[in-house]
Amino acid sequence: MISTDLGSIYDLAPAVNFAARAEAHENIVWGPRKNPDFQLFYILSGEAEAQIGAEHYLLAGGDCVIYGPLCPHRLRILSEVEYISLHFQWRVPSPEPIHPAYALQSCSDEEMRLYREIGFIVEIPGQDKVQLPAFINMPGLEPYLLRIVQEYSNETPGYAIYLRALMTEMIIALARQLLNRQPPSAERVKIEPALSAIGQHPETNWTVAELAGLCGYHAIYFSAMFKKCTGVTPKQYLISERIRKAKYHLLQGEKMERIAERLGYASIHYFSRNFKDETGLTPTEFKQQEHEL
């Protein structure tokens, strides 16, 4: 499968151009055509066939297809269906909807046959890249889609920016589920012993050599592979894991001295400095923030 790299999920700035829940009768056909934006077509009930480029997909309840701008596609309704159609952009400055209808283009069967770019890649820093295929079975998307449809239909004040927030939430939820489904990359498997050791024993002052030894690699090679997989150095990963656990213990009411000791810090000062570098807040400010919410 040929995939388009959509970049980091941290750079998300989506806009919903159109969202509707509708019904369609048997034998209705849309296309072949190309959109000016991305489209997600989700089946609530019934059956349909989607052709994206040269590929064919049979859709039933909980199935959806996703394709990008200028992707030749055709949708054929096989039985009475209820569906959600969502047009969106992945990353644009303004969240204001731009209806796609006037920019739809017809295309030929020859364009459909020759098109091969199917699927997308999404980067989540610190994780493997997520493969976002053209066809997905994802019943859990329905609540997100219905909220988007309702907000788009109501057009209440501020709806465009709220749609951006809802769309961001849905994309992140989708990426998480897909990440859990796909096997880890070969490179991540290689550093898994180190990740596991840090997760289970964040209080240990792990050296790069020790972590590399757990994985059976030279320290220099291990460090390069670790940063490629996680986006950070082994030392920074250890600090982040410590601070993640520290936040939990702080919210449980534990004293800073005990937390610092539990997580392997020689002094409260060093713990507090790490905490602020990681979160922008001191441990005390973090705890106070909880009571202000």
Automatic annotation (TrEMBL):
SUPFAM superfamilies: Homeodomain-like, Regulatory protein AraC
Record InterPro entries: Homeodomain-like_sf, HTH-like, HTH_AraC, HTH_AraC-typ_CS, RmlC-like_jellyroll, Tscrpt_reg_AraC-type_HTH
Domain HTH araC/xylS-type: 192-289
Any one GO molecular-function label of the UniProt entry: sequence-specific DNA binding
Keywords, ordered alphabetically: DNA-binding, Transcription, Transcription regulation
Pfam families in UniProt: HTH_18
Keyword Plastid: no
Protein name: HTH araC/xylS-type domain-containing protein
Protein's organism: Paenibacillus nasutitermitis
